[in-house]
## 1
Amino acid sequence: MMKISGFWIGIVLMLAAGFVLAGVADNQFLFFAGYVILQGLIMAVAWNVLGGFTGYVNFGSAGFFAIGAYTAIALHQFAELPLLVLIVIAGIVCGLIGLGTGYLTLRLRGVYFAIATLAMAIVFESLITNWDYVGGSAGAYVITPAEVPFFDSFIEMMFILMLVLSLICVAVSRYLSMSRMGRGLASIRDDETAAECMGVPTLRLKLISTTVMGVMMGVAGAPFPFFVTYINPLSAFDLLIAVNAIAMPMIGGTAVWFGPVIGALLLGTIQQIVTVTISSELNILIVGVVLIAFVALAPRGIVGLFQDFARKRREGGK
């Protein structure tokens, strides 16, 4: 009899809970907030595949998100393809760009790599701003259908879609972390020179990491124009989106696959509560304050705090 792990049971339960929520909830803001949180979760998981697993801090992740969004815009204007097809193509395009940019930048290390990725994002933004076919600096509108099959509203369908995509990305991240490839990525993070001396194919593993990161960022970005219905370079390359992609895994914990999930759910929920009760303008302030607090008091994130607490309990018991 085949044994099913607790992880896959949790995946099924989360998916079932999402469909139950879609069937019983009448408040459309729940689906709006849920979509935003899950979008941040995918970006956090994607950033962690490179920044957490290999230790290569990437400041240009929002660029891949925007490329995914504008790939969907360009294809939608060209042929009005189904949204699922747009997501798949955007993921492939961003994965290939991730592979190419990784080949150009991954020979750099530390702050030099971080600056190079930031420069790449600036280049992407400049290109999109001057690309008139997708609206350029003026932006572009997307008309969403008033009714969708099997769902009461379009935003409800978008929430379920983002839930499915986020669960897939979490499953891929977990596989990478627990596989032989994940051990190779961890060795790069710990000591890349030693890993090379031991025969670890560091460049190949890093290129795989950047490709997977690009695919996930593209998948997160492709539905974005249909969610907001209007997109321009300022919204696609928004500072809050870029900072959240970095802050969420750092708050949750970057060394493990479930750290970004914890950080995204916690920080995303706080931001949505503040948006409703106070003002959305405070979200970037909240990210900064929480991130500074964790960097100063818990540099390994929430997961690191629990690991330290568990270790102290074991040592106390002995």
Note: The chain has a mean pLDDT of 89.
## 2
Amino acid sequence: MTGDTPTEAESRADAESWVDAPTARWWHTIDDGRIECDLCPRQCRLHPGQRGFCFVRAREGERMVLTTYGRSSGFAIDPIEKKPLAHFHPGTSVLSFGTAGCNLNCRYCQNWDISKSREWDRLAAIATPDAIAEAAERSGCTSVAFTYNDPVIFAEYAIDTAAACHERGLNAVAVTAGYITPLARSDFFAPMDAANIDLKGFTEDFYWKLTGSHLKDVLDTIAWVHGNTDTWIELTTLLIPGHNDSSEEIEGMCRWILAEIGPDVPLHLSAFHPDFKMLDVPPTPPAALRAARRIALDAGLHFVYTGNVHDRSGDVTACPACGHALIERDWYEILAYRLTADGRCPSCGATVPGRFGPTAGEWGRRSLPVRIA
């Protein structure tokens, strides 16, 4: 996959705007003189003045640059449950931000105005990694999340911000589709304390036709992160009626999860709503979401949650050994927190996998916009 071919006027404007952009990582020059990006499986090959498929990694002279380093599409303080993460410091607040662009082409993208933007990299607010970490600390956040668009494409910015967060005792969270090369994924996930990885479906046909990417690359990332890092991971699947919601596909996905990463990685099954280029597909019925959750639990997964619908039963964290309700939620708000200080069930003593404290946070379901000078 090659980058976009710019017009002469666009090339001149881009050349001027990229001069001060930092040199990117994960690229090399090939025999014909083009620069090949090694960050994601698309491996875009660029002539001077071209951008990659993601639109934010570009060739400036004899180097590749990240045009959105330090430029965000906006900041908000969210509940950590909104990422979604159910087993990572429940009830705490997280400073969330993204940039422009994406390396996938999801026909149903719910953040398409950001991920598909061809202007944000010039119009967005400037925010250094340290300024972001300082704002999160000042706001009482426990974590900073790279989200809204996929942080893989602004990996250098995310990695540097994660380092700034760690200097202040904050966590770094990646919300990603996991479409990244083996060469880059160790660098990207090493500083991430938690990640929610989209497992968008479980057929190659779905991945290629609806996202323009490949299933195997994502499965490899999920298995690798689970087996080779200390990053806490949870998975999310958006169930789209008629496309990835059959009982056979859900069962197949759950069998893979059990075989490759085990029963304790939380799975979030979220409801689709019509957006972007799939306005003709109906929303996911709540009953279908609950039925899918039942399939996943019956398959042997211990922690399965529903999202984008009001479903109190699908928000409960239950002990996998005795069934005792340990964390009860209403949307993103913690109603009850019964885990012991060391993350165990008070009824039977079973350990619940995750990153838990002696008490839950009290942020609630609020989302607040934040300005960072």
Note: The first strand starts at residue 27 and ends at 29.
## 3
Amino acid sequence: MNKNNHHCQFDNLKKNMQNIYGEEGLQWISNLPSLVDELAVLWKLRDIKPVNNMTFHFVAKAKSEINTPVVLKIGIDKSTIENEMQALKIFNGQSAVKFIDYCNKYNAMLLQQAVPGSSLKSIYPKQCQFVMNEYVKTVNLLHKPILPTNHSFPHVSEWLASIDKVKSNLIPINILEKALSLKNYLLKTSKNEFLLHGDLHHDNVLQNENEWIVIDPKGIIGEKEFEYAAFDFIHITELHKFDLQDVFQKRIKLLSDKANLDFQRLSNWIFVRFILSAAWSIEDKDDPNRAIHLARTLLAESLHK
């Protein structure tokens, strides 16, 4: 891989690796060209082209020895990559990208490439109803009614512990307290739980021929409402709309109806996920303000148990 061709693709990835892992992250970034070259030999890959929206993993499209479109994915954190691999094995190509192979030495996976690969993000909110319909169909196919035995997937409560650890004053105290209260209530009253994708925003649902499939599953145990709460209700271009609160509520109601979910429980999970996102942003030395802004917008609609 030519080290000079893909600077812009690496900027965001480099920033995140430096913020989270410091010198180890920068060293990993500098080693990537040689890792990619070795994996290209191992898996007989050619035409390796890094994607332009890398955040926490190196991801590149490529062609296999028999000219099949594939994806090469490399991570710095072994447990994250292994969790994704295990989730993909369980989903087994049912509404999810297919797992092909794993390289333990480099925390790398070889995956099916979705073709044409456009995401739901590219048509939202212009085609809001269509996006919601396909999203619901995809999630329903994805969720397995029976949890795997002897699994190592974390429970959603483990993720949510980050909210308890927030020490920063970047999250207003009334919003943080509301999130803590709702989190505890939702966990206490959770019923049917599934193996969830965990991070099912629009960029993680791609078109593959005539169907939509998910990529980048985190693999986490929780209830359906937590999964649906990751839906991108508000597009970044809509953040300053004067009727943002009304638009937000209507879309939550629309999705809850389509997915046959309790509107209030879904709303509560959306609020909690925003504060979880803000907590993670603070941990990663990133800006939590967008998540806090959306949480504040939602809170104005008097969330309750």
Note: The longest strand covers residues 57-63.
